[in-house]
Amino acid sequence: MTYFLQQFLNALQLGSIYALIALGYTMVYGILTMINFAHGDLFMIGAFFCFIAAGLLKLPFVPTLLISMAGVALLGVAIERVAYKPLRNAPRVSAIITALGVGLFLENFTLVFSPYPQSVPTLIPNQTWMLGPVSISSLQIIIVLLSIGLMILLDLIVQKTMIGMAMRAISWDKAIVPLMGVPLNLIISITFAIGTSLGAAAGVMYAQAFPVIDPYMGIMVGWKAFISAVVGGIGNIRGAMIGGFILGLVEIMVAAFMPSTYRDFVAFALLLVLLIFRPHGILGKPRPQKV
Amino acid sequence: MSAADVLLSVQDLQVSYNNIRAVKGISFDVHEGEIVSLIGANGAGKSSTLRAISGLIPYTGTIAFQGKDLHKIPADQLVALGIAQVPEGRGIFGNLTVYENLKLATWQRKDKQELPKDYERVFTIFPRLKERRSQQAGTLSGGEQQMLAVGRALMSRGRVMLLDEPSMGLAPVLVREIFRIILEINKTGTTILLVEQNANMALRVANRGYVLETGVITLSGSGSELLGNPRVKEAYLGG
Ligand SMILES: Nc1ncnc2c1ncn2[C@@H]1O[C@H](COP(=O)(O)OP(=O)(O)OP(=O)(O)O)[C@@H](O)[C@H]1O
Ligand SMILES: [Mg+2]
């Protein structure tokens, strides 16, 4: 039981990182019905911003986090404008292939500057507390609380503000949105900025939890987060959060109680099985037919 | 009427989709305070004309609103100028509540202190919407959705309201209701450009009308003139 509780804490930590990244996939899908396959690589860039800010510039945690989020947000907005916007009315598969290309570009670009893995300095003083028999670290607490805080903030933005309302409207029918006087391009840029900055926050936290980073680190994590988004119901923000925690839990528990090589196999099997029984994911709804 | 009264002027408007010409150089005016109806059969180019005026699709020719050329102005900013479109098939946001749909339409409004009065006005015209203000708009009936679409246009405070087939798919009672409301909105100072296949109703409420056939205006005149015109009778009023 102790072992289980301990693993549960680890699952929460991993799950919050997946959930943060999954939000980026789901938000972009929600407004543009495309999978931004470069998103995992933007998470990687977020981790490299952490390396630059903390390792090279010796900045503390909060400025590092903010620099990374802002830097990746700008990059995300630029990518949308340059690479995706011209394809907005093209078949979705063209946009998806472009996204894969952007991802490869980001990986190779980073590889030029960092051919070897880099180690990221620890920014959060490592302290461990015992909750009964279970140990919990300062980093785990910060990762989980920060992630949940960011998710609550996002939920408030989406549900309560005019910008959030505009995002939801775009996800329903973006052709009509300009008739409301809403600037479509601005809202799409804001969505990219928010989604990618959450991925960057995940990158910073991931780099703190697993401090050796390399240009390919975003691939597998990105796939896992993508699965999380699909499991939760792609396009559904609360679904992405739930999906992230489910995937974190499944992975940690598989690694804890089965040979750890089963981990990724089980994660992908979960996706397949879920899609058979709930093709729209846990919270996703089939879109009611428009009249 | 003098040229000073012209609110919306369309000159030699052409719209093409992949080299297919849908609107082939039409010209018409809408004067301040009028109801103008544009009638025509399926595929005549009515929606294309409205979409061009709202800046949703590229066109050639000149569209001017209050004397101002609209060519380079993005669609969302046209709403701020006072052009409000109620799109074909209503175009309500089914995943937003009724209230949120109305609120979104106030995006570009600067006079936020006037908003409570305008919500009140919309809810007075459409009491149904008030009852259902917290309901997801996708759960509304077709008629209620049409009311919401008109309510939204009112919330954006358009000086001209472009209505694309507001009677489509509604039961006869509701059609009469919608046209009664259009007249009411017009009386409170909003100019109306109405696109319809229901030529009978559309011409009865209109000051003036135009008949659009395969991208060309073939007839124009006052509402009553067109209602009495034998060609209109034969083609659009069931003989
Ligand atoms: N997005 C589009 N792509 C290609 N062709 C289009 C497009 N929209 C309209 N058309 C064509 O342009 C012509 C005019 O269409 P439009 O929608 O303006 O007609 P309408 O008068 O509004 O018809 P309806 O009464 O059926 O709504 C039609 O032949 C239509 O097939
Ligand atoms: Mg039409």
UniProtKB/TrEMBL annotation, chain A:
Primary site of residence: membrane
CDD domains assigned: TM_PBP1_LivH_like (cd06582)
Domain of life from the UniProt record: Bacteria
Localisation per UniProt entry: Cell membrane
Assigned keywords, A-Z: Amino-acid transport, Cell inner membrane, Cell membrane, Membrane, Transmembrane, Transmembrane helix, Transport
GO cellular component entries: plasma membrane
Transmembrane domains' residue ranges: 12-35, 42-59, 96-116, 136-158, 179-204, 216-234, 241-259, 265-283
Membrane topology designation: Multi-pass membrane protein
N-terminal signal peptide: none
Keyword Calcium tagged: no
Record carries keyword Lipoprotein: no
GO molecular function: L-isoleucine transmembrane transporter activity; L-leucine transmembrane transporter activity; L-phenylalanine transmembrane transporter activity; L-valine transmembrane transporter activity
GO biological process: D-alanine transmembrane transport; L-alanine transport; L-isoleucine import across plasma membrane
Pfam families documented for this protein: BPD_transp_2
Family membership noted in the UniProt record: Belongs to the binding-protein-dependent transport system permease family. LivHM subfamily.
PANTHER family: BRANCHED-CHAIN AMINO ACID TRANSPORT SYSTEM PERMEASE PROTEIN LIVH, HIGH-AFFINITY BRANCHED-CHAIN AMINO ACID TRANSPORT SYSTEM PERMEASE PROTEIN LIVH
Protein name: ABC transporter permease
Source organism of the structure: Levilinea saccharolytica
From TrEMBL, chain B:
GO biological process: L-amino acid transport
Keyword Transport part of the UniProt annotation: yes
Domain of life: Bacteria
Domain ABC transporter: 8-239
CDD domains, alphabetized: ABC_TM1139_LivF_branched
Gene3D superfamilies listed in its UniProt record: P-loop containing nucleotide triphosphate hydrolases
Keywords: Amino-acid transport, ATP-binding, Nucleotide-binding, Transport
Classification via Pfam families: ABC_tran (PF00005)
Gene Ontology molecular function: ATP binding; ATP hydrolysis activity; branched-chain amino acid transmembrane transporter activity
Signal peptide start-end: none
Family that this chain belongs to: Belongs to the ABC transporter superfamily.
Protein name listed in UniProt: Amino acid ABC transporter ATPase
Natural source organism: Levilinea saccharolytica
